[in-house]
Records
---
Amino acid sequence: MSPRLDGSRTHQATSTLPPEHLDPIEHHDAVVDHDDALAGLPDIPAYDEVAPADARALSKTLFERLESLEEGTHEYAYVRNTLVELNLALVKFAASRFRSRSEPMEDIIQVGTIGLIKAIDRF
């Protein structure tokens, strides 16, 4: 998976922003409160702590919610990404059935993840 950034690798910016970028935002109408947009979604524990039966039930709820959302919104992206991460265990399980192949396991999981993303997008 992707490496995590830690404090020892994160570099501090050496330049400063021009004063016009430091002023508060003037257009409050354009600001969307993401907490309001995500209201009604269930609280989701860490993905490795979700049991398979719970993952199926949660996926059904998230697919119903995804169907009612407009594509391109923050809420749509959140629900879509949550569905992908929630079902990665299924991809890993399916990939484990192909261990006897000469392909590296990372490649098989990558292809399975791409297939999962395409399936969610087709929904």
---
Amino acid sequence: MRFSKERQMSILRWAVVRFLLAMLLALGAQAAPDSQALARGVALRNGGNLQQAIDYFRALGTADESVAVSGELGASLLQARRYDEAEPLLRQAYDKTNGSERARYAIELGNLAAARHRPAEALRFYAEARTLAGGEVALALVARINEARLADRRERPALLAAISRDIAGVNAAQARARLRLTAGTLASEVSSVQIAYENLDEARILAAEIGDVRLEVEALDALAQLYEAQGRNDEALRLSRRAITRAQAADGVFTDLLLRLEWRQGRLLAAKGAQDEARAAYLRAIEQVESIRQDIPIEYESGRSSFRDTLEPIYLGLIDLLLKKADTAGGSERVALLRRARDTAELIKQSELQDYLGERCSVDAAQNRTQAGVAPGTAIFYPIILKDRIEVIFESGAGIRRHTTALDAPLLRHLVSSYAEKLRDGEADYHDNAVKLYDILVRPFEREIVAQQVHTLLVVPDGVLRLLPWSTLHDGQQFLVQKYSVVINSGLSMTSQTAGHSEAFSALVAGMAEPGPVVEQLSGSSLAQVMAPSTARSALNLARQPVLRKLTLSTRALPTSGAERTALLKEQLALPGVRLEVESLAKILPGTSLLDATFTTTRLSDEFEKGEYHIAHLATHGFFGSTADESFIMAYDNLVTMDGLQKLLQAEGVRKTPIELLTLSACETAEGDDRSPLGIAGAAIKAKAKSVIGSLWPVSDKAAQQVMERFYSGIARDGLSKAEALRRAQVMLIANPDLSHPFYWAPFILVGNWR
């Protein structure tokens, strides 16, 4: 889902309010005995350099185990949304202090509770902070502003009006200015325009008087935002430019502020029709984003992707302007603009995976792979979903071009998600939508595909298009997969394009036909995910999870514990076809087979340590949710998380013999969640595998066995590429009247290297 500009601005305003409150609390830290040492770390944090601040306080803590250092480290981790790490440090500081210092940490713990959506707990901490603040009026006002933030929207104007009156009683000019700025920003959120303006303008004046340039720029930024929200675009543009000039002329780091200011300038210039100036502003905004990428928190509140909700619109805005410019450009300039638009979209792909995995190191490591040109016989589809249209950038040996289809994003989402649901549920009336989507995505490029003798289509899907099995698109005569191999890429810069292993290879094939002690590890969301009802599984009567063939046993009906619960889960989660799958693949692939009790996490680790395997085939339950934390694979004895998979494959042996292919033949993605397919690509990145085969929905035992046998025969005996071997396996099922529906063959997707 992509949000309106108003929703995006609202999220950014809340982020700004949280940041301003954190800076207010930091003012108190500078009065501590070790104030100079603390002040350096606080300055890093307030400048937006979160990771540097965290590293600084950690290093400071090794030499000085003071409560203040622990507290500031906790506050920095909280601002970085690393809640589990922040909480013990903040509680330690809270427990070991009294009076106003305890009040500071009570507010931080209140902020932590609010971030975790526990408002009652947050309000208790804020109320305690007001009491503990004593004569420190500024600290009490910080607590009150936080209380107002959690109050009913209708009550906030009155609360903010009272707070605004009381701010006048704060003697310290800097603290008074910051309180004005925070109250004004919060008033903007609830459309209390007069309260907002009075507070923000006084913050600007005070900041100028005391020579606090950063505070002055923040106030100008907030005023510009207030005017933009009112449609006073000329004034908003004037204030934004004034703030940019002020920041650029001053010493210090203003990257986080310049990001917002340049983005607003780009939006306002685009609205005025000044396309070239707008494009330049967007480019500068993205330069600022990239320079602080490591310090952007992985998630904002409500578990939403920090990138998608707040920063992706900057990249999409630039892409929009680049493509509009390409409309009137010619020759080499048009090519350069299209490549720049594609490269900008590639930055989105990298950030989406970083958000999904909850960390950046794995993606950054994958990103180091060299992005080669378009290989002979291949073509690249790079669809980009914009608000009012879908753009497809197509690149082949003949060059790069694009096709535009006017289609509102919500209509495209409905078309794709309803089509994917029909396939997933095994419905018969999918054909018209298959043709309609082919017309939008593929037909405009048919001539180049034929002329360039293309045999492999590389697709880098965007948003809801990740739910789409591209192999099922239909030209009116046949499926796309009947003509071409189809490969999904999470991003070209994160995909190895080198040729596959050409010498004799070996495989580790592991499967769980009868679950073991792992069922005792299932609880809460993990249990709900593997037991979730699916129309497809019951309707077609062949799906891998027999719990839904025999009866739909809800998690509520399960005994909470004991032998009966364990026995029921083992029965319902059995995968009877896996035994035959493992046995048949053992005849095709040289290597080692593990089944049931031998398929343990310890045994997996031992086998990977040997460094003998180029293929890892895991036939077991697995689930990819909205984030890596919601994703797992089941071994016989335990759940394997994304991080667990990474640890298994960090063995010295794997580093010597990297995994060419990771196959997850019984895993599935969350229905209707366009982030969940990122889990398949994420598994490849965590495993450092060149390619991964996964499934978009629960698969049929019979179909899975046949597809896997034919696929591995193709690469092991016939010397086919992974993409062509999968294509032939799927075409084989299409030719079988009993398995010709896309439900059986379409969920299998190859992600990554296709060779």
---
Amino acid sequence: MWILSLDRSKENCSDPIGYRITATDSEEPKKREKNLKEMKQAKAWEASNRPFQSMISTFLMLFMSGSGLNIISIIITCMAMWTPVKAFFTVNSVFAPYEGEGVSLLVPKLKYCALNMVVMIAGLYKFSIMGLIPTNAEDWISVVPISHPLEVSTGFYF
């Protein structure tokens, strides 16, 4: 006697030759999308650490240039100030490849800006040490108006 079974479940039939059922599994694209999100998030965190990589060499150059007023120390300090300013204007372009749905870039961007701010503060401190930032009252003496006396008294001593 012949038995005909119309059961089409995956467990009862084998895959055809050259066909993989796992390639068309509905969970596979979700896993790949989740892995892509995790990878983008990890790459965004790596991008937020880039200022830290150059921070050590910048600090070393600021230290080695000395506190005297000469062209080399001024150029190195200006470079230490210009690099973070340029980085502040290019934050969105640095993190543009990692944008996507479900990828939070706020904290990596804030970390990127904070590390650049540390380098900028080091440059400001260096300018202050060199005496190029007016911090004392004596630095502003040229803009203080000279007050002329309203009366003059003279006396004689006999």
